[in-house]
Amino acid sequence: MTIQIKVYSDFVCPYCYLAETPLLRATEDKDVEIAWMPYELRPFPQETLRPEEDYLQRSWQESVQPLSKKMGVEMILPEVSPQPHTFFAHEGLLFAKRHNKEREYAHLVFKAFYQNGEDIGKIEVLQNIAEKIGLDSIAFQQALESREFKKERERIQKEATEDLNITAVPTIIIGERVLKGLHPQANIERALRGAIRDSKFEFCDGDECE
After folding, report:
1. In whole angstroms, what is the distance from residue 23 CA to residue 188 CA?
2. Is-cis flag, bond preceding 45, omega within 30?
3. Which single residue of 26, 69, 123, 170 could bond 16 by disulfide (Cβ 3.0 to 4.6 Å)?
């Protein structure tokens, strides 16, 4: 039985990047299908966060950095200020999804931001990522510039907030079980076993971005 997993995340949420590691470890060699779903925390024209301000500095030092060290995930606090809006990055995700490259794309977008400090709000940065994973970079560029996936991205976000009541990320839906926030590998494995046994929703709290 193939378990369907949906991961709602935003590329500027550090907990979403951290969530990638236990998820992939828990699902390794398992019969699962993982779909990375776009969810923009601060849709344009809302203002985004600034890394030099107290909120991000405090959360990085008190939460993100200790977690990343514990999990063995290399991360920096990107100096891009203000942080980029991620509608282009998410529309690029949908382009990659069409070509079954969403997992590779998502990983490299997170890495570009949280390891290299690149501005993932720029099409040329995302286009370079698309090229690295074997996508047609010109078609990718044209899709983003024409906003080909804008309506689909907006529909997914609306369904997430209105139908699934998602207000923070990461949110991982495994079958019909919901893990809200950053969870260890053991929790994800338990949810996988539960998804096979039943279809009951279970909401769990953890570290997250709001």
Report:
1. 7
2. yes
3. 170
Residue 197 has a CB neighbour count (10 Å cut-off) of 9
CB-based burial, 166-189: b 16+ in 10 Å, e otherwise: bebbbbbbbbebbbbbbbebebbb
Q: How confident is the model at residue 199 (pLDDT cuts 50, 70, 90)?
A: very low
| Burial bucket for residue 205 (CB in 10 Å: 0-12, 13-18, 19+) | exposed
Distance separating alpha carbons of residues 128 and 132, to the nearest angstrom: 6
What residues form DSSP beta bridges with 48?
Answer: none
Q: Are 68 and 114 in contact (CB under 8 A)?
A: no
> Could you report the per-residue pLDDT of 17-61, keeping only the tens digit for each?
999 999 999 999 888 999 999 999 999 999 999 999 999 999 999
- What interhelical angle do 137-145 and 87-98 show, nearest 10? 130
Q: What is the CB-side half-sphere exposure of residue 113 using CA atoms within 13 A?
A: 26
Amino acid at the residue 76: I
The answer on pLDDT for 204 being more than 90 is: no
Reported pTM: 0.92
